[in-house]
């Protein structure tokens, strides 16, 4: 066997190891192996590599479009018609060598695509986990900020009430329940410099479209201090700023009025109380 024929057979070692030769090519190559120790050694070495290829990367299915394109390339390379050549130039190395190059390139592309696909899946999973943990952390932070804001408002309200209750000019008026609500009780704490604090309990539930209204009882006429919305148990605590230029009231009263309040009392009184000097 001359050197040219040996080189042609040697080009087929990779395809033989991968089982990619047709029956006639395989018989011809195996006949060559019986007399060529170099090719036989190379086939043995490539056989171990070929057996390990299926386990080199995690099993991930490639996208259908990529698989079809690779298989189409391999098939078209395999069956491409050869140009007419003289018998002298038509050597068996031409088609197997061309097919071998195309097949190996396609196989390499497939391995790279599978590897990149597995890596991309891993990255997506990690990114999804990070985004989920970030969203949870932001939700907890937002909830904590809201709780802090509520606590700050509560502390500020408590400080304001304490300041009012310790004012030097503090006036306290106790309010008793009137015939529509005999069990109701209330207290008004007034400082002309620091404001008005009112608390009541056992107030009857409000009818639809109605609201409780607190009144200063002055010598001229009642003056509205503000609106009251008790809770389900009939309790209410509210703070107000006294109207400007209002004289010290003779007492306080609470009536039920239309939603939004009115300029002067129109409904029955539910609580009323006079200052100690009256």
Model description:
The chain is of the alpha+beta class. The chain has two domains: 3-121, no CATH class; 171-274, Sandwich (Immunoglobulin-like). Helix content is 46%, strand content 19%. It has an eight-stranded antiparallel beta sheet, covered by helices on one side. α5 (64-79) runs antiparallel to α6 (94-165). Residues 85-95 have low confidence and may be disordered.
Task: Estimate nothing, just give the exact number of structural domains.
Answer: 2
Q: SSE string, helix = H, strand = E?
A: HHHHHHEEEEEEEE
Return Rg in Å: 48 Å
Structural class: alpha+beta
- The number of distinct β-strands equals 8
Q: Widest sheet: strand order? A: 5-4-7-8-1-2-3-6
Number of helices: 6
User: In one word, what is the shape?
Assistant: rod-shaped
In percent terms, what proportion of residues is strand? Answer: 15-25%
Query: How much helix is in the residues?
Result: 40-55%
Quaternary structure: single chain
Major sheet, described briefly? 8 strands, antiparallel
Mean pLDDT: 79
Q: Provide the low-confidence segments as ranges.
A: 85-95
Distance between the termini: 136 Å
């Amino acid at each position: 066997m001359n050197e040219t024929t040996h080189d042609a057979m040697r080009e087929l070692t990779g395809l033989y190891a991968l089982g990619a030769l047709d029956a006639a090519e395989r018989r011809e190559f195996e006949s060559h192996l019986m007399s060529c120790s170099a090719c036989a050694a190379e086939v043995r070495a490539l056989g171990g590599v070929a057996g390990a290829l299926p386990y080199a990367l995690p099993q991930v299915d490639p996208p259908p479009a990529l698989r079809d394109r690779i298989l189409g390339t391999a098939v078209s390379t395999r069956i491409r018609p050869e140009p007419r050549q003289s018998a002298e130039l038509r050597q068996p190395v031409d088609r197997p060598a061309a097919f071998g190059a195309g097949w190996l390139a396609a196989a390499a592309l497939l391995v790279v695509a599978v590897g990149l696909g597995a890596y991309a899946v891993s990255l997506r999973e990690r990114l999804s986990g990070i985004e989920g943990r970030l969203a949870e952390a932001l939700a907890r932070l937002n909830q904590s900020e809201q709780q802090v804001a509520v606590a700050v408002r509560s502390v500020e309200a408590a400080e304001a009430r304490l300041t009012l209750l310790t004012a030097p000019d503090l006036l306290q008026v106790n309010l008793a329940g009137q015939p529509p609500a005999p069990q109701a009780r209330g207290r008004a704490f007034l400082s002309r410099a620091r404001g008005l604090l009112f608390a009541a309990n056992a107030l009857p539930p409000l009818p639809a479209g109605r609201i409780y209204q607190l009144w200063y009882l002055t010598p001229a006429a009642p003056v509205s201090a503000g609106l009251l919305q008790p809770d389900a148990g009939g309790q209410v605590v509210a703070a107000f700023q006294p109207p400007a230029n209002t004289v010290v009231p003779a007492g306080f009263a609470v009536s039920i009025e239309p939603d939004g309040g009115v300029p002067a009392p129109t409904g029955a009184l539910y609580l009323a109380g006079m200052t100690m000097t009256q």
